[in-house]
Design goal:
Number of domains: 2
CATH superfamily of the largest domain: Thiolase/Chalcone synthase
Pathway: Lipid metabolism; fatty acid biosynthesis
Pfam family, one: Ketoacyl-synt_C
CATH architecture of the largest domain: 3-Layer(aba) Sandwich
Enzyme class: transferase
Radius of gyration: 20 Å
CATH class of the largest domain: Alpha Beta
Shape: globular
Strand order of the largest sheet: 5-4-6-7-1-8-14-13-9-10
Catalytic activity: (9Z)-hexadecenoyl-[ACP] + malonyl-[ACP] + H(+) = 3-oxo-(11Z)-octadecenoyl-[ACP] + holo-[ACP] + CO2; a fatty acyl-[ACP] + malonyl-[ACP] + H(+) = a 3-oxoacyl-[ACP] + holo-[ACP] + CO2
CATH topology of the largest domain: Peroxisomal Thiolase, Chain A, domain 1
GO molecular function, one term: 3-oxoacyl-[acyl-carrier-protein] synthase activity
Strand content: 15-25%
Length: 411
Amino acid sequence: MKRVVVTGMGAITPLGNSVNETWEAAKKGISGIGKLTRFDCTDFSAKTAAEVKNFNLSDYMYVNERHRMDRFTQYAVASSIMALRDSGILPGETYPQERIGVSFGTAIGGIGSFEETYKDLQAGGYQNLYPFSTTTVISNMASSQVSIALGAKGVNSCTVLSCASGSNAIGDAFRVIQRGEADVMIAGGSEASLTPLGIGAFCAMGAISTNPDPKSGCRPFDQNRDGLVMGEGAGALVLESLESALSRNATIYGEIAGYASVSDAYHITSPAPGGEGAVRAMEGALHDSGLSKDDISYINAHGTSTTYNDKFETQAIKSFLKERAYQVPISSTKSMTGHMMGAAGAIEAIFTLLTINTGIIPPTINLNTPDPECDLDFVPNVARKTSVRAALSNALGFGGHNTALIFKKAE
């Protein structure tokens, strides 16, 4: 089995329109959450969201191309172009196009295009529909359009596993390279669900924060948390074998050491009591990595700022790490980015890799009154400098999906 490393990264987030902008903001504990401006939310209980700001699509695609893509697909393509540029790989030159694949995830897909298409249908019947209505909506357009834009002719897959989609897409790409089925995989997640239907559905569920203060609405592990804040954006990684990366003297951000994905088989929205599924995912990723629990020195938590997720994830980490649970720093970067749904796992993988590279742990902001049931070291409000050799990233999704990725320094 080949060892797999990360040699390129791209990001579009509420904190910035590149990996560097996003990371600089995260280190400072800056919130990317603000007033919801995508539509008139007067009649909605949620008034805030983590929106992508001032992103220039013309740097990545022509006007006639973007019209055929939903916003989530545009983000996927742009972040993947960033990541491939960062890696220095030229498809067809560095590697054959047939040996470059794509694995991208999304939780909701083209919901904005779906809403607009339905309006057109109501206004003038099917004759009024845009010819590419179907292909702007369907979820696989993230991976397909990335493949087309980059000339990647190898494995092409789309992962739809709710909020674990981005992490699973990375894990699946990891397996493809391990098995030798591709030399390079572009993997990540994308989401753009800040629409009336997207926000409204979470309002109806009662899972979204109604705090009118944008900067303090998302407060993972805090006693006063009242729900998640929805975000948008995309993250992309370039994966290749360690052997190949060394042969071309590539910059290596870290190695993917372990991956596991399991199901709660319990409930469509609530995690299993005690985070039982999350425990098995973390245990599985650790076993896959060949590391010990003593090697894990940071966890990027799923940390959604919802009652059950934060409580059960805390319990899961305690069950997983045993007596070391209180010694390992943990943070929820969703406190700054909001919940980016299908893109969350990809962005949090990038944060985890940068923590390993820089030794800087991003904080959990707005953690002012810790929940007594969430009593671990969640790095409140201020980033921390420390040495991190190996780190774990959790992703948990509606439907009972539990995914864990372990990254380590490439040695």
